């Protein structure tokens, strides 16, 4: 899957700016500006304004409209929405903060990527109405955005699914875990589908309900050890029996010396 196709399906936050102003009266204002890339040059500029940690105003270039969240914020939104010069200023901010950084950001993503390593395993469910639980884990991938979906017989599962957030490994790579609670059904095929910018197409990982190889090996080793023990005991009994039949019993008081008497 190409960078453009992947990002056209899922909005990705690539660039953000935060500014805080501390007036002398002890209050403070905060501005969050960020860019969302749908495609390389299909970009949305978003701005949020806070006053003393309360959200006052919201604006994005898609709707080109301000929304107020407090009485004073609503008053300001009405003023800004009627001012064409103010909207022009926000479009200019989009060009400066977002459009100008599109090429460098895309080049960075294309040059620094890590393909996820997938592990599918069964875990013990806790306090659920289902008798089984699976977890599909993706390790050591970059960039952060990844899509993981459970499928049952090639159909997406939306219920009884729990996902962690993408967790940083501390070295630019990430990991994520997707859980599925279910009741095993004969003939059912359960699949974990993974989509990532490093993959040319979605990767499918079918769950094999048979026992994992490591557990099979442990059982084989255990059975072999048991058989070896049984054989050892049997050989010991045979040896003991042969040894017993070869013994000569000497009656008490019988003198075997011919010179005596």
From TrEMBL:
Upper lineage: Eukaryota, Metazoa, Chordata, Craniata, Vertebrata
Protein name: Ig-like domain-containing protein
UniProt keyword annotation of Protein biosynthesis present: no
Ig-like domain sequence ranges: 116-196
InterPro entries: Ig-like_dom (IPR007110), Ig-like_dom_sf (IPR036179), Ig-like_fold (IPR013783), Ig_C1-set (IPR003597), MHC/Immunoglobulin (IPR050160), MHC_I/II-like_Ag-recog (IPR011162), MHC_II_a/b_N (IPR014745)
GO cellular component: MHC class II protein complex
TM helices/strands, residue ranges: 219-240
Signal peptide: 1-19
Superkingdom of origin: Eukaryota
UniProt KW keywords: Glycoprotein, Membrane, Signal, Transmembrane, Transmembrane helix
GO biological process entries: antigen processing and presentation; immune response
Annotated Pfam families: C1-set
């Amino acid at each position: 899957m190409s960078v453009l196709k992947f990002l056209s399906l899922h909005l990705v936050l690539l660039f953000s700016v935060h500014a805080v102003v501390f007036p002398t009266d002890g209050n403070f204002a905060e501005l969050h500006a960020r860019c969302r890339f749908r495609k390389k040059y299909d970009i949305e500029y978003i701005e949020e304004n806070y006053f003393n940690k309360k959200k006052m105003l919201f604006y994005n270039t898609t709707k080109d409209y301000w929304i107020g969240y407090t009485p004073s914020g609503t008053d300001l939104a009405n003023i800004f929405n009627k001012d064409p010069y103010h909207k022009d200023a926000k479009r200019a901010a989009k060009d400066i903060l977002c459009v100008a950084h599109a090429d460098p950001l895309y080049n960075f993503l294309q040059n620094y990527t890590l393909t996820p390593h997938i592990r599918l395993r069964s875990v013990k469910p806790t306090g659920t109405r289902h008798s089984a639980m699976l977890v599909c884990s993706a390790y050591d991938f970059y960039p952060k955005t990844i899509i993981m979906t459970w499928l049952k017989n090639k159909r997406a599962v939306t219920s009884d699914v729990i996902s962690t957030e993408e967790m940083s490994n501390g070295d630019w790579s990430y990991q994520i875990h997707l859980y599925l609670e279910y009741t095993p059904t004969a003939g059912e095929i359960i699949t974990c589908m993974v989509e990532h910018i490093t993959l040319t197409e979605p990767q499918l990982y079918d769950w094999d309900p048979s026992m994992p190889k490591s557990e099979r090996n442990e059982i084989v080793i255990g059975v072999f050890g048991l058989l070896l023990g049984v054989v050892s005991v049997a050989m010991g009994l045979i040896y003991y029996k042969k040894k017993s039949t070869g013994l000569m019993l000497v009656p008490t008081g019988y003198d075997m010396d011919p010179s005596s008497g």
